[in-house]
């Protein structure tokens, strides 16, 4: 099987030598998505707009590779500040229905100004 890369005009351009979404067979991996707008500026207004934009970018990348939130089996979320966990979870619930995918939450230093990042793996038709 060959690796196929996917992107979408609504996604911000990649900030390095990677693809927004990659599919091999029915497995899809979505690169980390932050709260970047199409022009690579961060969504203004703090945590909530960045989290929402990151999830919208994630959903766009999923659709570009032929899947949806229902196909997601695992999600990794990265928070710049662990105190934002509850606020992020409230928004997260809007994007993933029960039973939710497996998830890892990491509190780590992110790029300057970035408060949140999310990546996912999916199985098409999962």
Summarize it.
The chain is of the alpha+beta class. 23% of the residues lie in helices and 29% in strands.
In terms of topology, how is this protein built?
Elements: E1 4-6, E2 21-24, E3 27-34, H1 47-64, E4 72-79, H2 85-95, E5 102-107, E6 116-123
Parallel strand pairs: 4-5
Antiparallel strand pairs: 1-2, 2-3, 3-6, 4-6
Helix pairs in contact: 1-2
What does this structure look like?
By secondary structure, the chain is α+β, with helices and mostly antiparallel strands. The protein has one domain (4-123): 2-Layer Sandwich (60s Ribosomal Protein L30, Chain: A). It contains 2 helices and 6 strands. A 6-stranded mixed sheet has the order 1-2-3-6-4-5, covered by helices on one side. Strand 2 and strand 3 form a beta hairpin. Helix 1 runs parallel beside helix 2. It is globular, with a radius of gyration of 14 Å. The two termini are 19 Å apart. The mean pLDDT is 93. GO terms for molecular function: deaminase activity. InterPro entries: RutC-like_sf, YjgF/YER057c/UK114. It comes from Saccharopolyspora spinosa. Pfam families: Ribonuc_L-PSP (PF01042).
